[in-house]
Each structure stands twice: as C-alpha cells, then as structure tokens.
TrEMBL record:
PROSITE patterns cross-referenced by the UniProt entry: FE2OG_OXY
Superkingdom: Bacteria
Protein name, per record: Redoxin domain-containing protein
Positions of the Fe2OG dioxygenase domain: 252-347
InterPro entries per record: AhpC/TSA (IPR000866), Oxoglu/Fe-dep_dioxygenase_dom (IPR005123), Pro_4_hyd_alph (IPR006620), Pro_4_hyd_alph_FE2OG_OXY (IPR044862), Thioredoxin-like_sf (IPR036249)
Record keywords, A-Z: Dioxygenase, Iron, Metal-binding, Oxidoreductase, Vitamin C
Required co-factors: L-ascorbate
Gene3D superfamilies in alphabetical order: Glutaredoxin (3.40.30.10), q2cbj1_9rhob like domain (2.60.120.620)
Pfam families (alphabetical): 2OG-FeII_Oxy_3, AhpC-TSA
C-alpha cells in the first residue's frame, strides 16, 4: 500500500495536536518562520533517539523567530519525556499518540508503524524538503542533510516598518530552477513572436502593436506535456496561496506563454490594466513568474497607484495581483528577462468571457 505524502512545494497539512504546552496546539499559527518538523516515532528506538540528540547539538539554530524545531512522537512513553524540557523557545514537542498527524504526512505505515522522517517548511508552511531517516542515514548524517536544506534558504530579514505596499502576493519557489531553464530553452529554440495588447476600438476588442507602449516577444507553449507541467505546479504550489490570501478559487487559466523582455529592443510594458476591454473583462488575477533574475538589469514591476516601489521576484517565484491594478514592467537595460505570464479566472468569469466573445475582432494577445 502506498503511503500518501504531501508533495514538494505544496502547503503542509494543518493540524491541531497535543503538546506539553497546550492540549490543542494549532500548527498553522507558527507560520512566518522556517520549520523543521521531525517525525521520530519513539525515543525508545536507538536510531530515532540518536537523530533527535543530533538535532539538539544544533539547538542554537532554532528560535521562535527565524527557524523552529518541532519533534513528533507517537509513543505514549514519550508523553512525560524530559528530553524536550528546558530547551530553547525554538524547540517543541507534539504528542501524536493517535497517529493522526503522522498519517497526514505519510510518517506512519498502514499498520501503524512509525516511518521516521523530517520535513522542512518555508515561512508560509509550504514543503521545501522531505528527508527520510534510514538505518544508514540517521543521527548526524540525517541532521546534516536537513541543515544543508536550511542553509540554502534565504536569510530571514529583520522586522522593519513597511512602506505602503501594493496589494500584491509574492510567492517564491513555484517553479524549480531546472524547470525555469527548461522553459527558457523552449523559448530560445523557437525565438518568440512580437507581442501586442488588446484595445477597445469602435466597440470591438482588437489586437494592436505599439512599441512605445509595449515591446516584448512571446512564445506560446503548445507542447501538451510542458503545459501540464506548468499547470500542475501552479495548482499545488500557487493556487492554494491565492485562495489563502485573496479567498479566490481559481478554476481557469488563460494562456500558457513564455515571454521575453530583451534589452536589445528595450523590452518594457508601460502602465496598463489587464481587464479594461470586453475581451479581457473576465480576467481576475495576473501572474508573473520570473524564470531568471541574475542575467538582466531593469525589468522590475511597479504599481504607480501605490508609490514608486519596484518589485523583483526571485527566479521561479510568482507575483500575483488583481488585473484591475495599474502596473508597469520597467525597461530591461541589460540582458533578457524571461517570464511565464498566465491570467487566472473562475467559472463566473468564464461566463463573462463567453458572452463577450462577440466583441473580439482578433484572437487574444
């Protein structure tokens, strides 16, 4: 029987569980820091105790603000275990005696046998890594793998007073680096085609090109497997974040394209909104997933209604915003910026799109 586990990039399952501090600790309240969630099963097992001991050699790594450690036991003999007593504020114990939490994470077999493993979660409680404890990889070797994952994550920034931000959602790690490179390669092998925009003229939504307003080249992803790979990553890694942030249930995706803003042509898209014509009125959210960041200069996103701040999303990360917001892609001054640029909408908006097809003179941009 296969053990179900949440996949990389997905939101970690939320739960309530007994801990020495609370009879019902609400796990979702620990968001905002990195989490090491270690399912060790029972400290009576030598392999498991040595792994927990190895974690405690690095307990200075864990605190209440940047990275916390949560151990999960399924053994009632660990219920009064002093092993976790007197530790730092960043070290906690969950007493999962009914094994319900462990089952959510695939950390217990169908027969109820613990399957020791460690999950690393990001600040939004999404799964960054899942590392199994084995008879050959336990103790310090297992902990070294976990610490290596933690060291690869961006350093948590100190608390600051915020400027007036635009109501945008930044979601890192939607596309992994190898997949970003695959999409860039797809574009480069085909070369891209001039990209215009939609404008209302004489009661019709028409496609126009104006290099002063927009200069970009797009390549439609017509490969079925590649489209599905994009869709699945968004479905499991991005759409749950949109649902959480905006309470919007995405059911439709419009267009699968790789876009390129090239400095050779002063790639840019001046301030505009994405839903101001009959042919685009159904669009609810725009998504900009950067495929690279270090190989170009300029190209930042800005939202003039909310100040002069410029937004740069890490490679593989997404910037999500309402199509009603005025926004601009700044000129690329060096190199080429590649991005994956879909629009999102729901079933109600799909009805609007169907009704407005009569006003579209050409195909969507």
């Amino acid at each position: 029987m296969d053990i179900k586990k949440p996949r990389l990039g997905e939101p970690a399952p939320w739960f309530e569980c007994r801990s020495p501090q609370s009879p019902k600790f609400k796990f979702h309240t620990v968001a905002g820091r990195y989490i090491v969630l270690h399912f060790f099963g029972s400290l009576t097992q030598d392999m498991c105790r040595k792994t927990v001991d190895a974690f405690f050699q690095f307990e200075d790594t864990f605190d209440a603000f940047s990275c916390s450690f949560f151990g999960v036991t399924t053994d009632q003999n660990d219920g009064s275990e002093p092993h976790f007593d007197g530790r730092t504020l960043g070290v906690h114990l969950f007493q999962d005696f009914n094994k319900l939490v462990s089952a959510k994470y695939g950390a217990v077999s169908a027969q109820g046998t613990p399957l020791p493993q460690t999950y690393v979660l990001d600040e939004r409680l999404r799964i960054v890594a899942n590392i199994t404890v084995t008879s050959t990889q336990f103790g310090e070797m297992h902990v070294a793998k976990v610490l290596s994952v933690l060291s690869s994550l961006p350093t948590m920034k100190p608390s600051t007073i915020a400027d007036i931000p635009a109501p945008v959602l930044i979601v890192p790690r939607v596309f992994e680096p190898a997949f970003c490179r695959e999409l860039i390669k797809f574009y480069d092998e085909r070369g891209g085609k001039e990209s215009g925009y939609m404008q209302e003229i004489g009661g019709k939504t028409v496609y126009v090109e104006n290099h002063k307003h927009k200069r970009r080249s797009d390549e439609v992803i017509d490969d079925k497997q590649l489209r599905e790979a994009c869709m699945m990553r968004m479905k499991f890694r991005l759409l749950p974040e949109i649902q959480k942030a905006f309470q919007f249930n995405t059911t439709r995706i419009e267009r699968y394209i790789v876009a390129c803003y090239d400095s050779a042509t002063s790639g840019h898209f001046r301030a505009h909104r994405d839903n101001t014509t009959k042919g685009t009125a159904h669009r609810r959210f725009a998504v900009s997933i950067n495929l690279n960041t270090d190989e170009y200069e300029g190209g930042e996103l800005s939202f003039p209604e909310f100040g002069r701040q410029r937004y740069v999303v890490p490679a593989g990360g997404a910037c999500v915003f309402s199509c009603s917001l005025l926004h601009e892609a700044k000129k690329v001054t060096k190199g080429s910026r590649y991005a994956f640029l879909p629009f999102l909408y729901d079933d109600a908006a799909a009805a609007i799109r169907e009704e407005n097809r009569q006003f579209i003179e050409t195909n969507d941009a």
